[in-house]
Design goal:
Catalyzes the formation of 4-diphosphocytidyl-2-C-methyl-D-erythritol from CTP and 2-C-methyl-D-erythritol 4-phosphate (MEP). The chain is of the alpha/beta class and about 230 residues long. Helix content is about 30%, strand content about 25%. Strand 2 and strand 3 form a beta hairpin. The structure holds cytidine-5'-triphosphate and ligand LQXTBERG.
Amino acid sequence: MSETGQPGGFARVAVIVPAAGSGVRLGEDSPKAFVDLGGSTILERCVSGIIDAGIDAFVVVVVPAGLIARTRQLLPGVTVVEGGAHRSESVRAGLEACAGADVILVHDAARPLTPPEVFGRVVDAVLAGHEAVVPGLPVVDTLKRVLPGADAESVAETVDREPLRAVATPQGFTRAALLRAHADDAGLATDDAGLAERCGIEVAVVPGDPLGFKITTQWDLRIARMLVS
Ligand SMILES: Nc1ccn([C@@H]2O[C@H](COP(=O)(O)OP(=O)(O)OP(=O)(O)O)[C@@H](O)[C@H]2O)c(=O)n1
Ligand SMILES: C[C@](O)(CO)[C@H](O)COP(=O)(O)O
C-alpha cells in the first residue's frame, strides 16, 4: 500500500461511514447498523475493518439522531455526527467533519466484511491520480430488461452483462472531487460516484471482493452471521 494517513507530506485519509439508514428491507427492530453480527454491532464490525485495513484514517460515523450518544459509547474516539433522511445527505453531514483530509473514502456501515485489500486498492488508485474510484465486480447473472404486464412481467431483451459492474464501497475521492460531487445540497443518488459522474468526473473501477457484499435483506444477514461464526 502507498504511504497514507501521515502528516508531513503524506496524504491524510478520512473515511465517512454512513450508518443512519433504518434498514427497512432488513426488517429488524433496530436500525440496521445496530443489529448484532456475532456479538458486536454491524457498525462496530465495519469500523474495526477500517482500522484493520491499516490506512491510518480519520473515521467519521454518521448515525440517526437518537443514537449519537450510544455510538460514542460503542466507538470511543471516533467522530460521530447526525445523518439525514437520504444516504447522500448523511454523507454530506460526514463531509463537514473531514476538513483536513486529502483523500476521502465513503464506506457503508452495511458492508462490514469488506477485506483490507479493497481499502488499499481504492486509496492507492486515488493517490495514483484518479479523482474518483469505486470497487466493482463483474455481474454473473443473465440479465433481462422487463416490461410491466397485467398478470406477469414480460422480457423485452437480454442485456449484455459483459461491460457491467456491480459496485460497492469504499468509494474513494480526492477531497476536491467529493466536494464537487456534493456541492448541490439537494443532490441525491444511490452512491457518491453517481453524483461525481453527473459533474463529469471520471470514475475509475478497481477490483472489488465478494466479501464486500451489503447486508440489505435477512438472507444477507444470515450469510454474514455464518461467515463470522
Ligand atoms: N438516510 C440514510 C440512509 C442510508 N444510510 C446508510 O447508507 C448505507 C447504505 O444504505 P442501505 O444499505 O440502503 O441502508 P438503509 O437505507 O438503512 O436500507 P433500507 O433502504 O432497506 O431502509 C447504510 O450503511 C445506511 O445506514 C445513511 O447513512 N443515511
Ligand atoms: C452505495 C451502495 O452501497 C453502492 O453499492 C449502494 O448504491 C447503496 O444503495 P442501495 O440502493 O441501498 O443499494
